[in-house]
Amino acid sequence: MLRQGLATFAALALATQAGCYNTYNITLDELGKVQEGGSASAVTVTTAETEQIVVTENTKIGVTDKDGTYHPISPFNFTMTTNQLVAPDEGEILMREQIETGNVKQISGLKTGLLVAAGVAALGALGVFVIVKAPKNEGFR
User: Fold this and answer.
1) Which 3 state secondary structure label does DSSP give 37?
2) Which residue, among 50, 43, 78, 73, has the nearest Cα to 61 in the 3D structure?
3) Best CA proximity match to 53, nearest among 63, 43, 62
4) What is the pTM of this model?
């Protein structure tokens, strides 16, 4: 019973790792700004929802192709021409016509905080469960 509960908890924890990021779609023209790097290795891009977000070296970016496959790329270390995208760190060469959209993923403080709080609550509940289910007056043998 306890083993099944721990396995379920571990599966839920792994499944929620994607919940720590806000993902924004950007056009390929906006993604092209990220290859330059700007003066302080930070560039502001406009999302499809017309929000301004800052991309730094630590920001996760990538592209989604027309098949729905996500391809991560390194900020400021790729080249996009009128025909193709070349990302040497990831070994990616994609034809521009295959790319559906650019993506920027930024850490969400709220989602991360909720994930940590849920983990702490689950560990607390597990501790209470162990205490309640422990046999009475039987010491270690």
Assistant:
1) coil
2) 73
3) 43
4) 0.65
pLDDT band at 12 (very low <50, low <70, confident <90, very high): low
- Amino acid letter, residue 31: L
Is 9 within a domain? no
pLDDT digits (tens, 9 = 90+) for 91-108: 889 999 999 999 999 887
Q: Which pair of tokens denotes residue 43?
A: 């560039």
**Backbone conformation region of residue 117, classed left if phi is above 0, alpha if psi is from -120 to 50, else beta:** alpha
Give the neighbor-by-neighbor strand order of the sheet with 79-80: 79-80, 84-87, 92-95
Does any domain span residue 1? Answer: no
Amino acid, res. 103: N
- How many beta carbons lie within 10 A of that of residue 75, not counting itself? 21
Number of domains in the chain: 1
